[in-house]
Amino acid sequence: MSGKKKYSKEVLREAVEEVKAGASLRATAKKFGIPHTTLQDYKKNKYAHKPHPNSALMPAEEEALVSFIFWMADHGFPVTRSLVKVLATGIIKESGRHDSTTVNLEKGPSGMWWSRFKARHPELASRMADSLDRARVHGAQSI
């Protein structure tokens, strides 16, 4: 067995709809070339995205944080991971959800929170800043 899928997401979606409409699971799986167990799992929404039960920020708060990160970057002030964690802690404190969150308000969100945050927002990218050479720094100061 090669381990590579021979069907697209669109084909899988179509097959799931056909099974939900009443078609036989095994016959539909054979027709579309999808393993019947995979089709069964998708029919039962086994792979539906579920938010983390202890999400530190509410979705609207998280979107506001992402917007702020982009605004800062557009204005020449890229935001570091540690600053994002400090901002998230501030948002939690301002919201008054001290007791309902598992975030340590002294240390801020964990590294795992950062990983999940980046996974939820693939439009964010981590980059190392280029260091300026001495001539460019002195040239910028004389302006």
Element layout with pairings:
Elements: H1 9-20, H2 25-32, H3 36-43, H4 59-74, H5 81-95, H6 111-120, H7 134-141
Helix pairs in contact: 1-2, 1-3, 4-5
Q: Please provide the count of β strands.
A: 0
How widely separated are the two ends? 66 Å
Structural class: mainly alpha
Radius of gyration: 23 Å
Globally, the shape reads elongated
Strand content: under 5%
Secondary-structure element pattern, one letter each? HHHHHHH
Q: Characterize the largest beta sheet: strand count, sense, and whether it forms a barrel.
A: none
Low-confidence stretches: none
- Summed up, the helix count is 7
How much is the average pLDDT?
Answer: 82
The helix content, as a percent range, equals 40-55%
What do these coordinates show?
This protein is an all-alpha fold. The protein has helices spanning 9-20, 25-32, 36-43, 59-74, 81-95, 111-120, 134-141. Among the domains are: 9-43; 59-120, no CATH class. Helix 1 runs antiparallel to helix 2, helix 1 packs across helix 3 and helix 4 (59-74) crosses helix 5. The longest helix is centred in the middle third of the chain and has 16 residues, at 59-74. The model has no long low-confidence stretch (mean pLDDT 82).
Question: Main attributes?
Answer:
mainly alpha, 0% strand, HTH_CenpB_DNA-bd_dom, 143 residues, 7 helices, elongated, 54% helix, nucleus, HTH CENPB-type domain-containing protein, HTH_Psq
